[in-house]
Amino acid sequence: MMVQMLSRTLKPLGRPKQPRPTSKLQNTTIRDFGGGLNVVDSEQNLTSKFSPVFDNMITYTDRRVGPRYGYEMWYKLKQGATSSGSITSLTLTTNVTSNTERIILVDWVAHPFLGAVHEHVTFSNWSNTWNGIVPEMINRTHGIRRVLNANQFEIVVTNRATAAGPSTDTTVNYVKDAYLLGGEPVECKYFANYIIIWSSTGEIIRIDRDKQAVRIYSQEITAARPLNPIAWTFTEMVASDIFGSALICSNGRDKPLRIDFTQTDWVAPLLDGVNGDINIPAFDACKSAFRYFTIHDTELLDVTERATSIRISDENTAQVYVGSTNPGKAVDINMSKIVASPEQTVRGFATIKDVVLVITPTATTMMKYGPEVTISGTSSPLHDPVPIDTLNGFGTNAPRTIIEIGSDVFMVDFNGVPSAKLSTVSNAVQAERVSNYIETMMSAHIGRLRKETMRLKAFGLYDAKNKAVHYYLPKYDTQDIRDLKRDPFYFDTDMILNEFTKRTLIMRHDDHQLDVDDQIDITGAVGFANILATSINGRRRVVSILSKDYVLISIAVDLPTTPPTSTGGGGVAVQVQPINNQTIGYIYHYVPQLKLYAWSRFKTLEGTKFNCGCGTIEGRSFVITPDGFMMRYGSPDNPCFADWKGMYDIAAWTSGQAYTVGQRVYDNTEGVVYKCIEDVTTVAPDFHTARDLEPDSWEEYKGEGVNFTWELPWSDFGARQNTKALRFVHVDANGEAPFMLDIFDDNIYKDATTGQFTPARSLQFVPNEAGAYGIGAQVYGAGRRTREQKLWQMPMKFKILKTRISGSSTQALSISGLSFMYQRGSQVR
């Protein structure tokens, strides 16, 4: 009896009974995307609020996402005609008379300079070294100081000549211009309702909100002043801060200047009232705080230990320092005696609460200003700043990335972005890292840039309208030349037959850190398999990324149709140099009140680089390209959804002129740019009439599309081992820009041989405000309308699923929700 009872209660052995698939649709909707970019954590473990790919995307304060705003062309700093040529006999003469040792007399028969306008000359291919003047000082852009006569003019170089006399005649190439901006912009800052721009020629420009620009400092301007002083020479960096009504600035080489629009001379040397500027040092870092002006002195010829020192001015002045006739409370402090650090060169300053942060690459010291000490034999007490704390491992080598926002200080170090902030509990200053989620990405990027590149080229700004901290870094270093391993190129027979790969080679490049569409210069390769060396060497494009060690590159010929015995080669001397033709932005969406801390990565258009940028008191954010294009980044109150909107090639239309496809012409009566889409020559009284006569030749230029990519992590919908059958999807999207939705399944992501994406399903959508066929903007055939509450079919089976949204946008787009309707099945597929 007992045996019978046990046999009824015991369950049979073997495989457990599987749940039967149900026809009921499960619904999962994702709405919170506020986490931003996260490349540190595993994709399989991330929640849907984070994104492993978040390129040219931004998070909104309500946790929506969308493509970033565009960079609109706001002002063109280089306008006008240029001329160029070659001079077969050019002589340069130096002088050693006091205050003229840096002036070069240029002997050029019938030169093209007029002397009546601000002009520049750019020399190249000069090879002579004479009287202490090396070619590097000549082969750059110079402002014309004075035109003496039809055959002679003056330029100024950085170093003093060691002897007087002429150089030997040589042939040199030149470019002449009369641009407002000479050379490249190196720094900009908002001051007194103007944006101040410093150029590599040492010139200074100011521009107001109405786009009225004027040059306020140059060699030509100072040469016309009493005693004919020399202005700033070649400039690579500028340190500046506001003291009273003046902006004090220095380029680290020439004597500091004060910019004060309340004075008759807007820009003048910084003088101490007794000895002129003889005791005022050049500096590469400065800070105005607590009635003192603190600098890091760069004149190290006499006192070499000043690399680790800070110099604090007398109270209530910015021009009196130790060494002046009456230094008052001025004091010098050697920071190497205060903090023990392997890298002690002072790079910058900041203020937080009631202390000054003295920042080196590897440590930061908090200095309390105000305490005084009386020393025997002195007539008055001396200023005795007190170091109250040290933040070891917290610092930066990139002073232009130091940003102060309220009680927080951000900067870029060798790994990412640390922050100093006030503790809400103890009111003490504490250091933390805000870049934890993107540290591997930023660290790898910074690691391929030299320390000097980071010091001079990396910069940041605070975007008040978008509540974001912007950091911009050159994509590659100009000296980034890489040696490849022996015979790094190869191909196979499948590549010969594939239309996508038939003009490509696989290149081995360990830990390459390259991106699709990067341009690279290849040198030193030898031909193989009937492929000539000239078809491999030269400027090539990265077609796709196969892995972290292999890429697919373009070549100049088709692969051989008859495969040879050896399909690999290239030799032992192959070198690759990535071309630095882009700036990468790391954007920190920072809204503490809403607990929103999200990172994005911005990629500019190919060929677009930024040299400097700043924000204004009105919340506008500007960046400036090396070519002198002043770009405004869009904002919620003044949106711009395309890059280069407003860009033009020709400033005014001319009747009877021939225009070719692609030329952008500015209509100065309407304030709109039009693009030529068909070669045309029109005789008309104005541009508006010309467009009416040739309507098929012109269209309004709305800018270039912002290329965006957003990926969610792999998701298992709460049942990792269960097979799911996806039936329908729906996207909640606003705006007008179409986008592509790709769905990947079960870790199948890219084709291993071509690097192309391999989605299981793809659909194109258009958001709510896009008009249907015959209504508003024509999007007929462009995709599924998210406005229609339909169940869009995307049938596929999966255990884990990844979503990718991409597109190129010149219009508004934001995504607030993704819905997936699926059936859950058994664990056996």
Q: Pairing-aware structural class of the strands and helices?
A: mainly beta
Number of strands: 65
Q: List the uncertain runs.
A: 1-9, 774-778
Shape, principal axes of CA atoms: globular
Distance between the termini: 43 Å
Q: What share of residues is helical?
A: under 10%
Largest sheet, if any?
8 strands, antiparallel
Percent strand: 35-45%
Please state the average pLDDT score.
92
Radius of gyration: 32 Å
The number of helices is 7
What does this structure look like?
The chain is mostly beta strands and 829 residues long. 5% of the residues lie in helices and 39% in strands. It contains 7 helices and 65 strands. Strands 8, 9, 10, 11, 12, 13, 14 and 15 form an 8-stranded antiparallel β-sheet that branches. Strand 34 and strand 35 form a beta hairpin. The chain starts with a helix and ends in a 5-residue tail after the last strand. The N terminus is likely disordered.
